[in-house]
Design goal:
The complex is a heterodimer of chains A (363) and B (287). Chain A is mainly alpha-helical and 363 residues long. Chain A folds into 2 domains: 46-266, no CATH class; 269-349, no CATH class. Chain A is 70% helix and 3% strand. Chain A has a two-stranded antiparallel sheet with strand order 1-2. The longest helix of chain A is centred in the C-terminal third of the chain and has 27 residues, at 232-258. Chain B is mostly helical and 287 residues long. Chain B has one domain (2-113, 133-286). A two-stranded antiparallel ribbon of chain B has the order 1-2. In chain B, strand 1 and strand 2 (131-134) form a beta hairpin. Chain B is globular and about 60 Å long. The chains are: A mainly alpha (363), B mainly alpha (287). The A-B interface holds A 69, 71, 116, 119-120, 122-125, 127-129, 131-133, 135-137, 139-140, 143-144, 147, 267-269, 272, 275, 279, 308-310, 312-313, 315-320, 323-324, 327 and B 29, 33-35, 82, 85-86, 89-96, 98-103, 105-107, 109-110, 212, 215, 218-219, 222-223, 225-226, 256-257, 260-261, 263-264, 267-269, 271-272, 275.
Chain lengths: 363, 287
């Protein structure tokens, strides 16, 4: 247990103490029992929010930890979504294994990320240019799919359907004792929850490992990291591929959830959304990204019922205000203040009682 | 014969579009190292002002100039209130101008709705060597070249140009020599926004007006700036020529969408071969 904790805890993430993990455990417990008390609609809705969080966590890795601002995560989202749709429509019925379609879709998204990432990172595109190249990528893909309305645009039995999007995509399923187990409704919710826990813990291990430390060193000062002997472009490429594959996971899950995918998911303003979720919560911390994304999505959905335009204006203003006043994100700002508060209190008790315990678990 | 002429016409047409779409973005990037994500929205401002003043009875050219002026003033306001806080953190400026872009597009949707009255393309077309070519598009090519010439004069022959180039090279040194750097920044941002507005006005007669009109410019503008590099005079024209040839060729062979995809592939290759884009290439050859 202690070794496990030392893997997920480290200098690159907030929250390491008993309090943090107790709260996290309670939240997980609440998430586990919640479907038994909530309506089907609410469960589906929460699953829908959770689907996007993978893309946000991936962007946090690329942008927050790796220092590369990618505006085009929706390209991988859309590609994996369409990939899942095409494979599931063609082979899902016979093999009963649309879960394989999901995995293949991730491979497709990962390969595109490898290709684009290679040209971008080894082409020494840095700073703001990463943003423009990736944005051009997602907008180009959206433009391309938009014009595939004709009947000649089909892959096997899957019609791309252009602007209107691909429909009638089978949901996730695996063979089961009595035929097939469909991941729909509550089952889908539990699948996404399990994947989310795995992804979150996996990324925590990754960023607190040697790899993560080097990645952060590259973010802070690429030249210095390179002079210290690290192959910085390899680290950046790996981070880019992992993060983009996570965007692909969001895309494939989203397509399986709604049994539908359209090119609008790669165009503006969809491409802006991941930036907003990650920036508002705090891009440099996985926990802040996770919670922040959930909160922003929830807020956005409550607003969009009233008016789409006002909701987007509000989100734009939220982004602007965040970047102006708390560039690191609200939750990170909050975490930092909380940490300082705890430390100050500990110092005070240390002065009044015994010598400070060395190496006690930091909060 | 007709094919050759029609191909050259295509190249010139794309060249004009790339130059006009990218100039404003390139100037702002070259001076302050900031990519203005609200570039498309400044284009939309120009297009809207042009269309509405034309509808109100103003001559088209007056409408276009008015569009440029309004977009420019808008740019100065945005620079003074928001963008200037981001000069020391360029990546955040990307995100901030993105927020502005989102608010402007959706605000325009609320104000004007998604449709708008159109402006007919003036001048009609000319028949030559058995083909028919739009005169207005040829005029746009001339305007693009004139604009580049005008920018050359502004940056090389005026006091503002000298100050601007000094600031571009070394802002701290320029400031200590008495150049009003803050004002240069505001003026440059305004100039970039005005050129974006001008592009919107110039292309308003050829497109359907909507708050999203800017998004039909941004890919081309971004790609041109990435390929061109930091200097609008040295980098943008050769980048626009190269990309125009690629896009016109891909469009002629496979269609419009492949033209855009060809641009993306081309820009990936350009940056892989030429770091700092055509600006780096040109300056290295000159040195």
């Amino acid at each position: 247990m202690k070794e496990l904790l030392s893997l997920v805890n480290g200098p690159q993430t907030f929250g390491a103490g008993r309090t943090f993990w107790s709260i996290a455990g309670l939240l997980l417990l609440a998430a586990l029992v919640f479907p038994f008390f909530a309506s089907n609609y609410t469960v589906g809705n929460v699953a829908y929010f959770a689907v996007w969080i993978f893309m946000a966590l991936g962007l946090s890795l690329i942008w927050g930890y790796g220092g590369m601002l990618s505006f085009g995560q929706t390209a991988f989202f859309g590609l994996a979504g369409y990939g899942y749709g095409v494979i599931a429509i063609n082979f899902g019925q016979q093999s009963n294994l649309t879960l394989v379609a999901l995995l293949l879709a991730l491979v497709v998204a990962g390969l595109l990320a490898l290709l684009i990432g290679y040209f971008m990172i080894y082409g020494r595109i840095t700073g703001v240019f990463v943003g423009i190249v990736t944005l051009s990528l997602t907008l180009t893909l959206a433009t391309f799919v938009n014009q595939t309305a004709g009947a000649e645009w089909r892959i096997g039995r899957a019609r791309l359907n252009g602007y209107n999007g691909m429909t009638r995509i089978p949901p996730l399923s695996i063979p089961w004792v009595d035929g097939k187990l469909y991941f729909e409704g509550t089952a889908f919710y539990f699948l996404v929850l399990a994947l989310l826990v795995l992804t979150y813990l996996g990324l925590r291990i990754l960023v607190n490992s040697r790899f993560g430390n080097v990645l952060v060193a590259i973010r802070e000062n690429p030249d210095r990291a390179e002079l210290l002997g690290y192959d910085i472009r390899r680290y950046q490429l790996i981070a880019f591929v992992i993060g983009s594959t996570l965007a692909g996971l969001s895309g494939a899950l989203y397509t399986a959830w709604g049994q539908f995918i359209a090119p609008a998911s790669m165009a503006l303003p969809a491409a802006a959304m991941p930036i907003i979720w990650v920036a508002v919560g705090g891009r440099k911390d996985l926990t802040a990204t996770l919670i922040g994304t959930f909160l922003v999505l929830w807020l956005f959905q409550s607003l969009i019922v009233v008016s789409q335009q006002y909701a987007l204006i509000f989100i734009g203003a939220l982004l602007l205000v965040t970047i102006l006043f708390t560039p690191g994100g609200y939750l990170v700002w909050l975490f930092e203040h909380w940490q300082r508060l705890v430390e100050r209190r500990r110092e005070r008790t240390a002065v009044t009682t015994a010598p400070a315990p060395v190496g006690s678990a930091a909060e | 014969m007709l094919q050759t002429i029609s191909y050259l016409y295509q190249v010139a047409d794309v060249f004009a579009f790339l130059v006009l779409a990218a100039a404003g973005l390139a100037i702002i990037f070259g001076m302050m190292g900031i990519i203005n994500m609200a570039h498309g929205e400044f284009i939309a401002v120009g297009a809207y002002v042009t269309t509405y003043s034309y509808q109100a009875g103003a001559p088209l050219i007056v409408g276009m100039l008015l569009g440029a002026v309004v977009a420019g003033l808008f740019g100065v306001v945005i620079e003074r209130t928001i963008v200037r806080r981001f000069y020391h953190r360029p990546i955040d400026s990307l995100v901030a101008t993105w927020g502005i872009s989102l608010m402007m597009t959706q605000g325009a949707l609320l104000l004007f709705g998604s449709g708008a009255p159109g402006v007919g393309t003036p001048f009609g077309s000319v028949a030559f060597a058995g083909g028919s070519f739009s005169v207005y598009r040829l005029v746009l090519v001339v305007v693009a070249v004139l604009m580049l010439a005008g920018l050359y004069l502004v940056f090389m022959k005026t006091r503002f140009g000298v100050h601007a180039r000094a600031t571009m090279q070394n802002a701290a040194m320029a400031r200590s020599l008495g150049v009003p750097v803050d004002r240069i920044y505001a003026a440059t941002f305004g100039l970039g926004a005005a050129l974006a507005g001008l592009a919107g006005g110039l292309y308003a007669p050829t497109m359907t007006l909507s708050p999203m009109i800017g998004s039909s410019f941004v890919i081309e503008a971004f790609v041109t700036v990435v390929a061109g590099g930091a200097d609008v005079l040295v980098g943008t024209p050769p980048a626009a020529i190269a990309l125009a040839v690629i896009k016109a060729t891909a469009t002629a062979f496979w269609g419009q969408v492949y033209g855009v995809m060809g641009l993306l592939v081309a820009v990936c290759l350009v940056v892989r071969i030429l770091p700092e884009g055509f600006t780096g290439w040109m300056t290295r050859r000159r040195a």
